[in-house]
Specification:
The complex is a heterodimer of chains A (117) and B (147).
Chain A (H helix, E strand, L loop, with lengths): L4 H11 L2 H10 L5 E2 H5 L6 H13 L3 E6 L2 E6 L2 H33 L7
Antiparallel strand pairs in A: 1-3, 2-3
Chain B lengths: L2 E8 L3 H9 L1 H7 L7 E6 L6 E7 L5 E12 L3 E8 L8 E9 L4 E9 L3 H21 L9
Antiparallel strand pairs in B: 1-7, 2-3, 3-4, 4-5, 5-6, 6-7
Classes of the chains: A mainly alpha (117), B alpha+beta (147).
Amino acid sequence: MVNNQASLDRVFGALGSPVRRAILMRLESGDDFSVSDLAAPLRMKLPAMLKHLDVLETARLITRKKTGRTMFVTVAPAPLAAASQWLQRYERFWSRSLDKLLAYAEKQERLPKKGRP
Amino acid sequence: MSGLKLVRHVAARPETVFEAITTSEGLSQWFGPDAGPVLTAEMDLRVGGHFKARFRMLDDTEHECSGKILELEPPTLLTMTWQWLGREADGESRVQFLLRPTAQGTELIFTHTQLPSEDAARDHERGWNGAFDKLERYTSTAQSTAR
């Protein structure tokens, strides 16, 4: 979760570079890319690319995982995923509760008014 | 920031719906997502007053939530903070019931918004939207839109 000023500074810091923005735009598709796939169209050497990836990872904008000898990079959806999980949980809870609330209110509405203060 | 909004229509007057939401008797009839019983339903109906509700689900788990009333305008508005017992780390959120009279009865506009802390939520939203806006501005070939 991006939940404090320091994290936000890192996010904005990471986005301050055209190279890193280009990297993120490619990752936005949701596909995994190997480091060399990412570096090739930018005509970058691997060490320079790795430095940019370090910055993006520190800002939690990407994650890296190694498969065999290849390093794969993915855009990190954590803040968005956490938000959507929260929504699903509460949507179920409230949707069902409100159904019961409305059924109860309609039943009350049909009662004779005697008990009403 | 995450927020849930549910809009429902009910064939009952706002007064009746409001009573069902704000009285112990009413709450104990509907609160909770399944047919399990409500064990506690307390509502100190005034601004600054507290509510507490505990229910048992059909899987035998018990859950309790509590909060404080922030806004109260019978029979059309109730806003309160919301927190689960035992999950304080999730932080407080905000629940609002807005009732509008209609020809058929009442329109209920329910919202529950996430507020890990109000500032964090605002910063969070600004941070992400801002980041993606910035990304878009710099990328003339952008195909995906800011989310």
